[in-house]
Amino acid sequence: MPEYSAIIAGTGSQVPEKRLTNDDLSTMVDTNDAWIVQRTGIKERRIVSPGESTATLATAAARKALAAAELQPADLDLIVCGTISGEMVFPSTACFVAASLGLNSTPAFDIAAACSGFIYTLEAGTNFVKSGRYRNVLVLGAETLSRITDYTDRSSCILFGDGAGAVVLQRSSDTSRGVIYSSLHADGNGWEMLCCKPGSRHPINEELLTDRNQYMKIKGREVYKFAVQRFEELIEDAMRKCELRPEDIKLIVPHQVNQRIIDSAMNKLGLGMDKAFVNIDKYGNTSAASIPIALDEAVRAGKINRGDVIILSGVWRRIDLGQRGDTNVT
Questions:
Q1: Closest CA to 279 of 313, 244, 260, 255
Q2: Catalytic one of 115, 196, 213, 258
Q3: Can you tell me whether residue 6 is helix, strand or coil?
Q4: Could you report the per-residue pLDDT of 94-110, keeping only the tens digit for each?
Q5: CA–CA gap between residue 111 and residue 81 (Å, rounded)
Q6: Which of 326, 15, 278 is nearest to 145 (CA)?
Q7: In percent, how much of the chain has pLDDT > 90?
Q8: Measured in Å, how far apart are the chain's first and last C-alpha atoms?
Q9: d(CA 235, CA 248)
C-alpha cells in the first residue's frame, strides 16, 4: 500500500453581517461591556439574520476554500461537517451543503463534538485521505449557536456567536508534509458542564420548555478549570511525541473559548501570546466553527506559510498550504 499525507490546500470562512455588541446585550440582560471584556475578551459576536442558517454559512465558507484550492465542487470526494447546531436533526448539514454545491452523490455526514468538532472532522477527513480512499475532502465547522442560546441568561448569552469555516484536504505522496500528529479525547462524565438537553433523554415537552432547557447550559467555573488544564496537558504531550521545542512552533490556533483561558494556558506553557492567533473579541465562541475561522484569517493575514508547524487547539498539526501550481498532489 502506498503511503500518503493530507495537506491543507485551501481555507475559507463566513460570518454573518449582523453584529451583536456587548452594549446591545446590556439592554437584554444585567451586564455591561467592561464586565464582559474583562471576563471573556469578547467585544461582539456575529448573529444570523432570517434566511441564514448553518448550511448557508457552511456553503459560503466551502466555496471560498474551494476557490483557494483551485478546485470545483465536482472534484470533492467527501464532505464532513462538525456542528451541534445543524440545519435540522436530519438530514445532515453536510448533505445540505453538498446539495447547495450541486452535488447529488458525494458522501456527506456530520460529526457532533461541540467545541472540538472541527478537530474531529479534520481527523476523520485526514484518515480518509491518508488511507488513499479519497483525494479531495472538504472539512467544515459551522454553527448558528444563536438559535440555541438563551438570551435571558447572562452567564451564557454573552459567549456565543455564529459562523463557519472550511478547509480542503488533498492527498499528497510527500509524507514529510501535512498532518504529522493528532490526539483525540473525550469524557462523557462531564456532560453537565456544557450541554443542550433536547433529545431521547430529554424529549421536547412542556416541562422542558418551561424550564428553558431547549437552550445551551454552561457551568463556567468548571469549564474554565478543565479547559486550562487540558489545553496545557495535550500540547505538552504532543510536543514530547513530536520532539518539538517552543521555538519550532510558528503559531497556535486555539479554540476561541475565552481570552482568559487562552492567556492562562499560554502562560503555563511558557509561550508568549504572540504565538497564539486570537479573534474571540470579534466573534465570541463559535464552537466547531472557531478554529477554522481563525485558521482562515491567519492564513489570509500571512501569519501561516507553507511548511510552518502550528497547533490547532490542543492538537499538533503541520500544515502545508497548497500554492497555485505547487500543491504536490498525486
A1: 255
A2: 115
A3: strand
A4: 999 999 999 999 999 99
A5: 6
A6: 15
A7: 64
A8: 14
A9: 13
| 8 Å CB contact between 294 and 320 | no
The answer to whether the CB of 162 falls within 8 A of the CB of 143 is yes
Which residue is listed with cell 483525494? 135
**Catalytic (active site) residue 202:** no
Collect all residues with Cβ–Cβ distance below 8 Å to 122 and sequence separation of at least 6: 139, 167, 169, 179, 182, 312, 317
Instruction: Give catalytic status of residue 255 as yes or no.
Output: yes
Summarised one tens digit per residue, pLDDT across range 9-56 is 999 999 999 999 999 999 999 999 999 999 999 999 999 999 999 999
Longest dimension (CA), the chain: 61
Question: Within 10 Å of residue 169's Cβ, how many Cβ atoms?
Answer: 30
Predicted TM-score (pTM) of the model is: 0.91
Q: What is the mean pLDDT of the chain?
A: 89
- Spot the catalytic one: 22, 136, 213, 285: 285
Band of pLDDT at residue 238, cut at 50, 70 and 90: confident
User: Which phi and psi angles does 78 have, rounded to 5°?
Assistant: -165, 145
Give how far Cα 79 sits from Cα of 101, 103, 137, Å.
11, 10, 6
- Among the listed residues 95, 136, 213, 255, the single catalytic one is 255
Residue 12 contacts residue 62 (beta carbons within 8 Å): yes
Q: What pLDDT shows up at residue 227?
A: 67
Give the per-residue SS3 of 141-210. Answer: EEEEHHHHCCCCCHHHHCCECEEEEEEEEEEECCCCCCCCCCCCCCCHHHHHHEECCECCCECCCHHHHH
β-pair partners for 13:
165
Q: Which three cell numbers stand for residue 244?
A: 518539538
